[in-house]
Amino acid sequence: MTEAMTPVTGGPVAPGTRAPDFTMHSTPDQTVSLRDLRGRPVILAFYPADWSPVCGDQMALYNEILPEFQRFGAELLGISVDGVWCHLAFAQNRRLHFPLLADFEPKGAVARRYGVYREGDGTSERALFVLDADGIVRWSYVSPIGVNPGADGILRALEALATPRGRG
Amino acid sequence: MSRQRDAAVLALPVGERDHAHGPANAPVTLVEYGDFECPHCRRAYPIVKEVQNRLGPRLRFVFRNFPLTELHPHAQHAAEVAEAAGAQGRFWDMHDRLFERQFALADDNLIEYATDLGLDAARVARELATHTYKAKVRDDFMSGVRSGVNGTPTFFINGERHDQAWDVEPLAVAVEDAARHS
What we know:
The complex is a heterodimer. By secondary structure, chain A is of the alpha/beta class. Chain A is 27% helix and 23% strand. Chain A is globular. Chain B has a 5-stranded mixed sheet, sandwiched between helices. Chain B has a single domain (19-181), classed as Glutaredoxin (3-Layer(aba) Sandwich). Chain B has helices at residues 39-55, 75-87, 91-100, 107-116, 121-129, 134-147, 168-181; strands at residues 19-21, 28-34, 59-65, 154-157, 160-161. Classes of the chains: A alpha/beta, B alpha+beta. Chain A binds chain B through residues 11-12, 14, 54-58, 60-61, 63-65, 68, 94-97, 127, 139-142, 147-153, 155, and chain B through 1-5, 8, 11, 35, 38-40, 66, 68-72, 141-142, 145-152, 163.
């Protein structure tokens, strides 16, 4: 991570801004770099932690809706401060079909750069970013504490990208 | 900056396509997006019944399918069988039976319940095999996605997502509030 640090204060990275690049582990021996995903929309879903004690939690919900995201050619990345082994077990348990990235070392560094780290809690917010094919943030949303945001906002943002006006 | 928004609202209004229990002109409509194999929905099932008992004819209850098929291997077929029962006018009987027998939702069980309920079980089996109601279940699911359903169960009270707890008291209080303000 060589780019200049985005200020931590001032809330989430604003629409119209280039999304800070990152490289994070998706499995113990694989990494995902944001810059490699240019050319298609990307959904970044920051969430506090694996193993929320409910079924139909945020990641499981997005897993069900994945075909709808894929209709837009969009790539979905889940991001939390959990480590790769934790992510691996969680993804297997929930049968997730998209990568979970470990914002683990330095802890929460990517969440900080996106302005969605919660200092006291040591986790990220539940925050969503939709990036266009050029890596520009087009929509973001930070959910109230304890409220899983669902997927309607993401789908509306992807629809806006898919129309010429939304690209402007 | 990030766009905060108001509480999620029901994108697809309650209408003819829905299974509704209670009068159409009731002051409160409670919509549940649920999954017959979800343990939390199972827990919500008697709670909703209690709220229905308290509100009586002031409440209309609507159930829409939101099967989490990756987590719950039987949820999709259970939803389709509930719809098949609905086509024979018995949606709610099957809804109740599925929650009460949540531990046994294999296809054979589903057909057995159709028989128990006195339905044309051969027709239910045929409609399950040919996925007659797959599109209906999918429409329910997508209407939930569009409405901000964020897990199961998710409730909407007069069109607004209920983000609070749904034990008997908080749900009954929220529904009573809506009844008073309608």
